[in-house]
């Protein structure tokens, strides 16, 4: 139980006190009424004696009584109605509330913070151990008190308002004060009238109420004298007369009203009555709120004074001097008691109590009394008790004792003695159930059993507990023997209390007596009031002995659902359950969950009893235990009840908060229950919002918003494809974020910005971000352009199993107009939503989120002014759908956004978008603490107008053959009001597309070209020039490819370089299918600027991703080798042969019938194809599926004048045609794609010649020797493919490139897959640091000097005439390097084996056997040699060995120059 203000040793004596009746004359009543008090009320504050009192018991022992209190009350002849008592108790409880602010329902999750009434208890989680310690400390500390004043008020009122009953005498009147005034005409006559009246009430059978202790009631005569108005002499003389008549012990002169009430009081006299009257005024409020008499009648009239504040109203209404028949607890007959109390909305009491208090505050009690008067009243009580009451009690006890000894002594004692004698043992008390119900048995008033009980009660009232106990014990036995159960229960109850209160505690508290009494009252006598009194007393006693468990069990036993004689069981049960809960928490090991559970039960019963505030308090206290423990259903129940109770009490904010909790926690409730919760919440919310319609919008709890998933998009939505027109993909909210691709776009933008800014990225550069999300860098304020929409994508989630319907959904924003041009805008206006001329706001009329669905809403703003915008959140009406609980499945609700939903109820509110930035982790301080950076995606800066480009692709293919060339068109449209310029496109795959070079002046196309819609520039040729090369030249600079340029950044050739507002331009764009088959994503980034430079945004970009699927076409491989034939007149540096293999790898998946090779072109700075050396005269080079073709071409060096202009990056193009149309390979688009495929090679750094000669001379030599075997010849294969598609024949064109770098090494048109090296054994030692061999390879050295022998193929010689045959042979030595070379020619046969002798031994060289020569750079030298033969036959002349070394090298690299083929000569005899 909760702590009480009084200890149980004080409580019980105060609950059972001697009762004294008061009977006043009208005049006496008038005197006391001047103080707004009745006579009984006047005495109330002074009814406790200030000193000890002595009396003697029947054995003449002195007995001391401490703190004796007497109860004086006016005589009322009607017993109180149960309904009135119930109402009184209800009002007492509702009138006593905890101080405001102590029901704070605040706890830290995971901790128990039990805010119990006026003291918070904090206990943390680890289940039992910690609580125990904390609660023990608090319990034992003197500070801890959890008081429940409403319970104490209830208990006090309950014990006081108990009607007197026949089986006990504790609240029967022992004496009667007869009060008359000294102002009466005949005071003595008045006293005799009053005396007769009292006698009539007591002894007349018409009056069964009130009850009197003994027939001979003590009468005490009191003369009231008004000091300020009355005649003191007269009063004294009357008093003397009284003393003569009634004796000095039986009368008293009480002087009051020493001052007049209307005199302005200089001194402030204390008002000791208010605390007593406050309680008693509660039950009377109805009478002066609804009654016929109004409060105002008190102002002037003294004749008809009403009591506004007493239990003991005696209103002179029907002319009777004392209206005894109206009990103050009498209910107004017209009002139905059950309605006013049991109704679920019994909130009136609290408010009416408030009114009462207000009414009472104006009344000053005791206004005519001075402190002297107070002392006189105190003295009067003292006198009355000492002289009148106690002697009377003492005498009565003696009389009763004597009567009992004389009357009862023999018979009953003898009977019991014989019974004991024969049975030989104590009679076992029969169990209650065996005893037959004789609760109806009534003893006559003079029965000896009742005399014992009277004596016991008298002893108990004067605190003589020993004697009381023995009397009760005796009476108990007698009653049980007679099976008078009601009497027995009463005796048991008081015996137990007496035993407990005995000084020195000679015997333990007999709790079983109480249990038996309770059971008897409840089950046999069906008297719940008496049972309740037993429980209240016993529980207090058990609590005082720290037997909390037993106390709790006892309290819970009496919490029933039934009502008894109109007594309300709900209020009683609620209070007892609450006390039981406090018992659980006060135990040695506090049982916190039991506490919470019983608090819930108590709250429920309070609610049924109409005590809404107490119900709410109980639920709130229990919530502190259940919160955050994962017991979600319990939490939901409690929150729901708290919400309802708060709503009933008009604590609307609390109600909203409680309902909010039910909705926002992951609820385990069923859909129906959740729907009910939601409707209740909306209903309460609506009421809240109606209270302050102009207040700020409330925060709504549903649906959940995942703030970090909010995405912001700047710009217009992408236009859909329109026929052949396809808009650039750009950026949209439908694209998923991909960190890799965003990095690629960033690199592309950096690349183009660097080109525009002459190779340097400016420090102010920041990559353009059109879509901001949780992955983007949101640390800066994003820039938006005026008149371009801002789309915010908000991620909603509905956690409930019922659909939510949001209507009129829009963004909430704040805007500051600013001028960014440098001039400070003096007045910075703060604009909140609702200024459409500044910011247009899109409203979504209906947005349905199905049960447990996540869904995004895209909301737009249209800025019409520059400034700073802050997007704060969303605003919407939250509602649910009428009828259908779930809207999912097929076509449950077809009209999702057409306004077809019938909205049951909706409330307007907002939710803020608060995004936490990324955690900072750079500095040491940031790493050691938790700090978050800003996230500014919702705070864009609106800047001035910028141009806006839209790009459309016309006839853009989605599938191509590898190497296929296709012509498409690109349309550039400026949809803004500003001109744009500096349009560029950047891509990582520049080899995929071209806008044509500077040479792309449109020349008249040949008819066949236009007929076939060829993408190439073609010229018709005559058939004579077939198989010989047609030469043209072009510079790579014209095609945007040159040293130091960025081939990826391509300027778009806009006419006049400016695109005006609203203008559009179409440009041709050639595409070439990538060489690898498969799906290719090619990113284009279009860069453009405004003509007028803006301070905030320097440039804008537009992105496009083209997806192209390529299928296989041709594979080309080529090799180049030196020709051994004699040189032409023109050529000095020797010829080369180019072998080209073409294979059709297409497997007809694209419907390709065959490929025609229409032209093979070369492009090089130094070489050109001269003619085709194919032996067959097959003009049409056709390749069907899986066929291979072989071509051989002769290549020669360009003439000096052609090669001279190297600085201008000029390339010579030579075309060899297999048909009658020449494709001009040096023009767009053929040259474009060739240069672009070359550009990747050009980007590789060139090897620089070394500066430190002595150190690097060997490396330089190797480099020079390597260069001899290098050739920069590029082959372009142009083809046509015939495709049958839908029974139409299409001609596709394309080109493949082969870049030949090294003599003798095969090159390919398609990228080669790297073969993975085979697994090697692991080496567990460190390899020695071997220097890379600086010797050139044999292959490289063999290319240093090119040798060829010129001789007749056959030679006829008449051997019979001349035995020696001499043949002249020319040895040509050609220096292929750019350095001087020393050459040694050795003609001696190298005899290695007999076989070699056979071959070589038959001929010999004549003349010098060794020549030493120096060949200048690229010089050709011829040696005239003679070979001598002696026989006919076939001879190999290729025996000369050639050694070479670079002239300026100390180290000699010498190796034989190998001839590639034998030089055979036939010697014939003539």
Structure description:
Helices cover 30% and strands 26% of the residues. With 1470 residues, the chain is of the alpha+beta class. The strands form twelve sheets. Strands 12, 24, 26, 28, 30, 33, 38, 40, 42, 44 and 45 form an eleven-stranded antiparallel beta sheet that branches. About 13% of the residues have low confidence. The chain is rod-shaped and about 205 Å long.
Number of strands: 56
Low-confidence stretches: 101-111, 117-132, 134-145, 281-323, 330-359, 410-438, 824-828, 884-898, 999-1011, 1245-1255
Structural classification: alpha+beta
- Share in helix: 25-40%
**Average pLDDT score:** 77
Oligomeric assembly: single chain
Radius of gyration: 60 Å
How far is the N terminus from the C terminus? 148 Å
Which helices and strands occur, and which strands form pairs?
Elements: H1 8-15, E1 19-24, H2 26-33, H3 39-43, E2 53-56, E3 62-65, E4 71-74, H4 82-95, E5 111-116, E6 119-124, H5 127-140, H6 149-160, E7 173-181, H7 187-203, E8 218-226, H8 232-246, E9 251-256, H9 274-282, H10 285-290, H11 337-342, H12 348-361, H13 371-423, H14 448-461, H15 465-482, H16 485-501, H17 511-524, H18 528-544, H19 548-557, H20 569-586, H21 592-608, H22 612-626, H23 632-648, H24 652-664, H25 671-691, E10 704-705, E11 711-714, E12 725-727, H26 739-756, E13 771-772, E14 783-785, E15 790-797, E16 804-817, E17 831-832, E18 839-841, E19 844-849, E20 854-863, E21 867-881, E22 903-912, H27 924-928, E23 941-943, E24 949-954, E25 959-961, E26 964-974, E27 980-987, E28 993-994, H28 1007-1011, E29 1018-1020, E30 1030-1035, E31 1049-1051, E32 1058-1059, E33 1064-1072, E34 1078-1090, E35 1099-1111, E36 1114-1122, E37 1136-1144, E38 1152-1164, E39 1167-1172, E40 1181-1184, E41 1188-1197, H29 1200-1204, E42 1210-1217, E43 1221-1223, H30 1230-1242, H31 1253-1268, E44 1270-1285, E45 1288-1302, E46 1307-1308, H32 1338-1342, E47 1345-1350, E48 1354-1357, ...
Parallel strand pairs: 1-4, 1-7, 7-8, 8-9, 14-23, 25-35, 48-56
Antiparallel strand pairs: 2-3, 5-6, 10-15, 11-13, 11-15, 12-24, 15-20, 16-17, 16-19, 16-21, 18-20, 21-22, 21-23, 24-26, 26-33, 26-45, 27-31, 27-32, 27-34, 28-33, 29-43, 30-42, 34-35, 36-37, 36-46, 37-41, 38-40, 38-42, 38-44, 39-41, 44-45, 47-49, 49-53, 50-52, 50-55, 51-53, 54-56
Helix pairs in contact: 4-6, 13-14, 14-15, 15-16, 16-17, 17-18, 18-19, 19-20, 20-21, 21-22, 22-23, 23-24, 24-25
């Amino acid at each position: 139980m909760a702590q009480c203000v009084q200890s149980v040793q004080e409580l019980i004596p105060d609950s059972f006190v001697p009762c004294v009746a008061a009977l006043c004359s009208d005049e006496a009543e008038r005197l006391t009424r001047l103080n707004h008090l009745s006579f009984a009320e006047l005495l109330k504050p002074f009814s406790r004696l200030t000193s000890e009192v002595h009396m003697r018991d029947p054995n003449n022992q002195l007995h001391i009584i401490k703190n004796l209190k007497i109860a004086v009350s006016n005589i009322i002849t009607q017993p109180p109605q149960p309904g009135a008592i119930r109402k009184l108790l209800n009002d007492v409880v509702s009138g006593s509330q905890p101080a405001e602010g102590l029901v704070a329902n605040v706890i830290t999750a995971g901790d128990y913070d039990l805010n119990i009434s006026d003291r918070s208890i904090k206990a943390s989680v680890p289940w039992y151990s910690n609580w125990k310690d904390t609660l023990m400390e608090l319990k034992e500390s003197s500070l801890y008190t959890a008081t429940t004043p409403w319970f104490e008020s209830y208990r006090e009122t309950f014990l006081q308002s108990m009607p007197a009953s026949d089986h006990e005498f504790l609240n029967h009147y022992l004496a009667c004060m007869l009060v008359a005034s000294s102002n009466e005409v005949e005071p003595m006559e008045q006293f005799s009238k009053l005396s007769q009246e009292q006698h009539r009430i007591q002894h007349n059978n018409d009056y069964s109420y009130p009850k009197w202790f003994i027939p001979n009631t003590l009468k005490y005569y009191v003369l009231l004298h008004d000091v300020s108005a009355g005649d003191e002499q007269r009063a004294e003389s009357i008093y003397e007369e009284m003393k003569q008549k009634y004796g000095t012990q039986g009368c008293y002169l009480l002087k009051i009203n020493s001052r007049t009430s209307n005199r302005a009081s200089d001194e402030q006299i204390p008002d000791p009555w208010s605390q007593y009257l406050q309680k008693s005024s509660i039950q009377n409020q109805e009478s002066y709120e609804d009654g016929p008499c109004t409060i105002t009648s008190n102002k002037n009239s003294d004749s008809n004074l009403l009591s506004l504040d007493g239990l003991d109203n005696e209103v002179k209404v029907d002319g009777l001097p004392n209206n005894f028949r109206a009990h103050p607890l009498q209910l107004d007959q017209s009002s139905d008691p059950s309605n006013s109390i049991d109704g679920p909305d019994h909130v009136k009491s609290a408010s009416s109590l408030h009114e009462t208090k207000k009414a009472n505050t104006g009344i000053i009690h005791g206004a005519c009394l001075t402190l002297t008067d107070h002392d006189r009243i105190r003295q009067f009580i003292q006198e009355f008790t000492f002289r009148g009451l106690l002697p009377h009690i003492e005498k009565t006890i003696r009389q009763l004792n004597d009567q009992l000894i004389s009357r009862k002594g023999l018979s009953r004692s003898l009977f019991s003695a014989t019974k004991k004698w024969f049975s030989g043992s104590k009679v076992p008390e029969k169990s209650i159930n065996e005893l037959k119900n004789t609760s109806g048995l009534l003893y006559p008033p003079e029965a000896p059993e009742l005399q014992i009980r009277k004596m016991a009660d008298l002893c108990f009232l004067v605190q003589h507990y020993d004697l009381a106990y023995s009397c009760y014990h005796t009476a108990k036995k007698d009653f049980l023997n007679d099976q008078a159960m009601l009497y027995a229960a009463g005796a048991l109850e008081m015996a137990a209390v007496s035993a407990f209160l005995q000084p020195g505690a000679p015997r333990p508290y007999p709790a079983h007596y109480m249990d038996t009494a309770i059971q008897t009252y409840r089950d046999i006598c069906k008297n719940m009031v008496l049972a309740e009194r037993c429980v209240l007393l016993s529980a207090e006693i058990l609590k005082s002995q720290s037997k909390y468990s037993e106390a709790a069990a006892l309290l819970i036993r009496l919490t029933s659902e039934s009502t008894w004689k109109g007594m309300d069981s709900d209020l009683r049960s609620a209070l007892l359950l609450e006390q039981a809960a406090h018992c659980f928490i006060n135990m040695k090991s506090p049982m916190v969950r039991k506490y919470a559970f019983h608090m819930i039960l108590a709250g429920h019963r309070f609610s049924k009893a109409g005590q809404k505030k107490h119900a709410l308090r109980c639920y709130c206290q229990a919530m502190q235990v259940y919160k955050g423990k994962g017991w979600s259903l319990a939490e939901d129940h409690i929150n729901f009840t708290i919400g309802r109770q708060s709503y009933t009490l008009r604590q609307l904010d609390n109600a909203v908060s409680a309902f909010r909790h039910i909705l926002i926690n992951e609820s385990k409730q069923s859909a129906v229950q959740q729907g009910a919760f939601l409707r209740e919440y909306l209903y309460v919310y609506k009421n809240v919002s109606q209270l302050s319609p102009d207040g700020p919008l409330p925060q709504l709890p549903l649906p959940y918003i995942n703030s970090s998933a909010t995405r912001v998009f700047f710009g217009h939505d992408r236009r859909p494809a329109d026929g052949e027109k396809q808009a650039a993909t750009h950026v949209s909210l439908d694209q998923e974020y991909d960190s890799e691709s965003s990095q690629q776009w960033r690199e592309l933008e950096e690349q183009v910005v660097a080109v525009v800014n002459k190779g340097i990225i400016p420090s102010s550069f920041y990559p353009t971000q059109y879509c901001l999300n949780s992955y983007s860098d949101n640390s800066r304020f994003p820039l938006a352009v005026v008149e371009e929409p801002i789309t915010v994508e908000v991620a909603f989630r509905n956690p409930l199993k019922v659909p939510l319907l949001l209507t009129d959904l829009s963004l909430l924003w704040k805007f500051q107009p600013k001028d960014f041009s440098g001039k400070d805008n003096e007045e910075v206006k703060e604009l909140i939503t609702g200024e459409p001329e500044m910011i247009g706001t899109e409203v979504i009329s209906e947005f349905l989120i199905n049960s447990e669905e996540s869904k995004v809403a895209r909301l737009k703003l249209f800025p019409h002014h520059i400034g700073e915008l802050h997007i704060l959140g969303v605003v919407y009406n939250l509602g649910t759908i009428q009828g259908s609980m779930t809207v999912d499945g097929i076509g449950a609700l077809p009209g999702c956004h057409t306004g077809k939903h019938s909205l049951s109820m909706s409330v307007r509110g907002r939710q803020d978008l608060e995004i936490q930035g990324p955690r900072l982790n750079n500095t040491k301080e940031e790493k050691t603490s938790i700090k978050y950076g800003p996230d500014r995606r919702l705070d864009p800066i609106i800047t001035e107008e910028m141009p806006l480009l839209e790009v459309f692709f016309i006839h853009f293919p989605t599938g191509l053959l590898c190497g296929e060339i296709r012509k498409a068109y690109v349309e550039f449209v400026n949809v803004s009001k500003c001109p744009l310029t500096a349009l560029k496109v950047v891509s990582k795959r520049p080899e995929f597309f071209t806008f044509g070079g500077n040479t792309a002046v449109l020349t008249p196309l040949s008819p066949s070209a236009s007929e076939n819609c060829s993408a190439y520039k073609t010229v018709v040729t005559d058939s004579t020039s077939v198989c010989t090369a047609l030469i043209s030249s072009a510079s790579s600079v014209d095609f945007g490819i040159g040293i130091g340029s960025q081939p990826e950044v391509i300027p778009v050739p806009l006419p006049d370089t400016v695109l005006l507002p609203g203008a559009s331009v179409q440009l041709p764009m050639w595409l070439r299918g990538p060489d690898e088959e498969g799906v290719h994503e090619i990113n284009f980034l279009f860069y453009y600027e405004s003509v007028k430079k803006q301070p905030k945004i320097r440039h804008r970009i537009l992105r496009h991703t083209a997806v192209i699927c390529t299928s296989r076409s041709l594979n080309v491989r080529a090799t180049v080798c030196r020709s051994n034939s004699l040189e032409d007149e023109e050529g000095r540096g020797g010829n080369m042969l180019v072998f080209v293999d073409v294979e059709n790898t297409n497997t007809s998946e694209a419907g390709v019938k065959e490929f025609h090779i229409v032209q093979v072109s070369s492009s090089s700075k130094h070489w050109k194809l001269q003619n085709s050396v194919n032996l067959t005269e097959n003009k049409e080079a056709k390749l069907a599926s899986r066929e291979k073709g072989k071509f051989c071409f002769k290549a020669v060096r360009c003439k000096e004048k052609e090669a001279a202009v190297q600085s201008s990056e000029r390339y010579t193009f030579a075309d060899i045609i297999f048909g009658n149309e020449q494709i001009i390979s040096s023009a767009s688009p053929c040259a474009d794609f060739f240069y672009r495929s070359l550009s990747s090679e050009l980007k590789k750094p060139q090897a620089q010649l070394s500066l430190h000669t002595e150190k690097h001379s060997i490396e330089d030599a190797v480099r020079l020797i390597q260069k001899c075997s290098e050739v920069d010849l590029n082959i372009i294969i142009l083809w046509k493919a015939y495709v049958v598609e839908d029974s139409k024949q299409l001609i596709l064109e394309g080109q493949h490139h082969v870049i030949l770098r090294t003599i003798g090494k095969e090159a390919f048109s398609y990228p080669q897959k790297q073969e993975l090296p085979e697994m090697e054994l692991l080496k567990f030692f460190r390899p020695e640091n071997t220097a890379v061999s600086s010797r050139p390879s044999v292959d490289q050295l063999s290319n240093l000097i090119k040798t060829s022998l010129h001789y007749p193929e056959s030679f006829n010689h008449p051997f019979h005439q001349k035995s020696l045959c001499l043949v002249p042979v020319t040895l040509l030595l050609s220096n292929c390097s750019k350095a001087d070379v020393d050459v040694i020619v050795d003609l001696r046969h190298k005899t290695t084996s007999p076989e070699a002798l056979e071959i070589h031994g038959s001929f010999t060289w004549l003349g010098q056997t060794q020549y030493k020569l120096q060949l200048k750079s690229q010089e050709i030298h011829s040696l005239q040699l003679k070979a001598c033969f002696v026989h006919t036959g076939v001879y190999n002349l290729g025996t000369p060995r050639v050694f070479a070394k670079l002239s300026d090298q100390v180290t000699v690299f010498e190796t034989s120059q190998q001839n590639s083929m034998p030089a055979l000569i036939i010697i014939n005899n003539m």
